[in-house]
């Protein structure tokens, strides 16, 4: 009985993780088409050595929309696992790269830290970014589950 209960919790946890991750990416991707979100991500992308070049090339609004489309595609692919496990694995692996990139903002964005309090502490922006550790883990789990579903016995 205990193994059945544990298995049910594991299944529920994986489903919640997969579709929660997909929903987060879809919703946040949609927000990248709003002017206020372009303003919200400005300090993050302009401080990033990787993304600041893209800001120069595309401009803030176009880059935000490109990021948004990418997030929407990743969320859609992750959600497609029941009928397209390979595509879902690809979406999850792309999300791993995305969340690794956003976690790098902790090191590149001065606004992520409040240094005036003695030792460095996370600011509101830093607190927003640190949750991406959980989303990175969720992406790794959904990638593993999709890759396992794609294997033939």
Secondary structure elements and pairings:
Elements: H1 2-31, H2 35-47, H3 49-58, H4 60-79, H5 85-108, E1 113-114, E2 121-122, H6 124-130, H7 132-150
Antiparallel strand pairs: 1-2
Helix pairs in contact: 1-4, 1-7, 3-4, 4-5, 5-7
Name the features.
7 helices; 153 residues; two-stranded antiparallel ribbon; mainly alpha; globular
Describe the structure.
This protein is an all-alpha fold. Helix content is 80%, strand content 3%. It has helices spanning 2-31, 35-47, 49-58, 60-79, 85-108, 124-130, 132-150, and strands at 113-114, 121-122. Strand 1 and strand 2 (121-122) form a beta hairpin. Helix 5 packs antiparallel against helix 7. It is globular, with a radius of gyration of 18 Å.
Mean pLDDT metric: 92
Strand fraction:
under 5%
Give helix and strand order, one letter per element, not per position: HHHHHEEHH
Q: What class would the helix/strand composition place it in?
A: mainly alpha
Which overall shape is indicated by the principal axes computed on the Cα atoms? Answer: globular
Number of E-state strands: 2
Helix content: over 70%
Radius of gyration over all CA atoms, rounded:
18 Å
List low-confidence stretches. none
Terminus-to-terminus distance: 27 Å
Helix count from the secondary structure assignment: 7
Largest sheet: 2 strands, antiparallel
Q: Give the strand order of the largest sheet, numbering strands 1, 2, ... along the chain.
A: 1-2
């Amino acid at each position: 009985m205990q193994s059945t209960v544990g298995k049910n919790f594991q299944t529920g946890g994986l489903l919640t993780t997969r579709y929660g991750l997909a929903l987060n990416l879809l919703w946040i991707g949609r927000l990248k088409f709003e002017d206020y979100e372009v303003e919200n991500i400005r300090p993050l992308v302009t401080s990033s050595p990787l993304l600041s070049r893209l800001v120069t090339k595309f401009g803030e609004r176009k880059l935000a929309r490109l990021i948004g489309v990418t997030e929407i595609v990743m969320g859609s692919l992750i959600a497609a696992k029941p009928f397209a496990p390979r595509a879902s694995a690809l979406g999850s692996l792309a999300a791993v790269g995305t969340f690794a990139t956003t976690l790098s903002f902790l090191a590149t964005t001065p606004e992520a830290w409040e240094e005036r309090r003695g030792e460095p502490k996370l600011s509101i922006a830093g607190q927003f970014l640190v949750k991406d550790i959980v989303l990175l883990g969720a992406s790794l789990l959904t990638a593993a589950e999709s890759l396992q579903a794609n294997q033939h016995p």
